[in-house]
Structure formats: structure tokens, C-alpha cells
Write a sequence for this structure.
DNA sequence: GCTCGATGCTTGAGAACATCAAACAATACG
DNA sequence: CGTATTGTTTGATGTTCTCAAGCATCGAGC
């Protein structure tokens, strides 16, 4: 019977978990010749198209950064820009079909994470899902 | 009554959680004028000293990368190199006291994550701790 | 309509980070 | 020993990052 972990312990474990997940993600992305930043961008866009600015906010980087990243993704036809119909300053970025396949493939290839999740029962997966949703809400 | 999430849904949520955590971490690190890579390195070293090679492995990057990152951290006295006593090729990197304080401060300042964890009861925190340990073992 | 401040994106300069190949020293092992 | 292997560094090249500046567009008010 484990005692309650301190918040610091939980932060430490979170850091470790994130770091493991990130390493897994990065090497799966590298298999597709994608950098971590490029793949992270695809991952964010998997949920929904987004403007340059909101992408930058989600990825915690400067907006000027996104220009280059999206340029390179667009050159490979993984993503496309579209001027917003309601505000001509805004450019909405969306995944192409190829881009969608790419990020799905990356997630399928994250073996460490997949193996880890396989160790959970259905109830445990449901509970993990619930807890993560509480801690990291949309 | 939530149904069991599919593995893909769980991967998606994990990606979102990691991304939120990462953004939080990056901006807390920036407050201390540390880049994400530098702070991540400190985070790994918080557990235990490590050689250049094992750092590179944990951070999923080339060993030659670490040279520059550790150089810059050492210049700011957050970390120090020490030639291994058993193998003179190996350099072990360890946090200085300043470095330890830096990473602890960063974790304390991760407001989004802290706020999220505060939403959990003690039992839930214990359970999250257990589940993460299963999915991402040491 | 017009001006003016704010907003969204891009560009350019300079630092950090990433990968790869190649070098070097030290070790391991036949 | 001699030879292969390992751990770290260096150098070249491309990507990412931050910051300041630029341009176009929007929105609120006159």
C-alpha cells in the first residue's frame, strides 16, 4: 500500500514520463525524416486546423518560428496554408491527407509508449484517461 | 459512465498532455534564461549524474550535441564535468548546487501543471503515480 | 469615408540545437 | 602486443529559436 506521493515526486515522475514519451516520439519521427518540431506541429494539427499564431502559442514558441516550420512542411506536402475567409491577415494551417497519415504512423511506431499502455487493464486505461483529462484539460 | 478509450484516443490525449506540460516547462525555463534543451538536461540530471553518452541516449539526440549543451551549462556553473575514475574516456556530469536549485525552481513555477495536479484528491494522485510508473517504468 | 492603434504574418540577424562524418584517446579482447 | 570498439570532441551544414523590424489588414472612433 503506497503512501501519497508528494507533489515534488509527482512532478519528477511527470518529467520522467514526458521525457520517455518525447524520446520515443522523436525517434519515431526521425524514421520519417521529420524533426521533433515538425512532428509536434503535425500532432497539434491532428486535432484541428489552426492559425499560425495559435500554433505558436500551443508550441510555446515565437510566431516567426512557425513560418519556417510550416514552410518546410508545406514543401513536403504534409500541410497546407489557407487564407482565412473572415480575416485576410490570418492563415489557417491544416493537415493534408499525407500529413494525417504521417502523424498516425508516428504514433503507431512509438513502441515504448505502446508497450507501456499495453500493461494496463481496460479499467486502468479508462482511469488514466480520466486523470489526464483532469490535469491537462483542453 | 465513460467507455474504455481506444489506444489511439489515449495516444492523442498523451500527446496533448505532454504538449501542455512541455509548453509550461519551456516558459518556466525561459524565466531563468534557460532553453528547453538546457532545462531538460538539468531535469535528467536531477535524478542522478550521468555520462555524456547516457545523457544523449536519454534525451534522444546525438552525443556530439551534448558537448555544446553541457559546455554552456558549465559556463553558467549549473553543472560540472568530472572524469570517471574507472574509465578515463568517460566524463560524468553532475548538477551543482545552483543547478539543482534552478531545476527545482522551474518545477515550482510550472503553474499550469501545478494547478492541474491540485485538482486531484490524494487518492487520485496516488493512482496517477502508480499508473504512470507502470506505463513509463525507470 | 478616414486615421490610428492593434493584430497576424513574414523577414533578417545571430545564438542554440540537431545530425553526420571524422578525429582522438582510452579501453577491451583476440 | 595489435586491432577493433567505445566515449568524447570538432567541424560542416541545416533547422530551430528569439528578437527587432516590416508590411498588410482589421477595428474602433472621429
Amino acid at each position: 500500500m503506497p503512501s501519497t506521493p508528494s507533489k515534488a515526486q509527482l512532478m519528477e515522475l511527470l518529467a520522467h514520463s514526458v521525457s520517455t514519451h518525447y524520446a520515443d516520439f522523436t525517434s519515431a519521427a526521425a524514421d520519417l525524416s521529420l524533426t521533433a518540431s515538425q512532428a509536434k506541429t503535425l500532432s497539434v494539427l491532428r486535432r484541428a486546423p489552426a492559425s499560425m499564431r495559435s500554433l505558436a502559442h500551443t508550441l510555446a514558441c515565437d510566431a516567426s518560428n512557425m513560418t519556417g516550420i510550416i514552410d518546410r512542411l508545406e514543401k513536403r506536402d504534409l500541410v497546407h496554408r489557407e487564407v482565412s475567409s473572415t480575416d485576410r491577415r490570418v492563415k489557417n494551417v491544416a493537415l493534408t491527407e499525407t500529413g494525417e497519415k504521417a502523424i498516425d504512423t508516428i504514433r503507431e511506431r512509438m513502441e515504448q509508449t505502446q508497450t507501456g499502455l499495453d500493461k494496463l487493464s481496460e479499467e486502468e486505461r479508462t482511469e488514466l484517461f480520466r486523470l489526464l483529462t483532469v490535469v491537462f484539460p483542453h
Observations:
- Residues 6 and 109 of chain A are 33 Å apart (CA to CA).
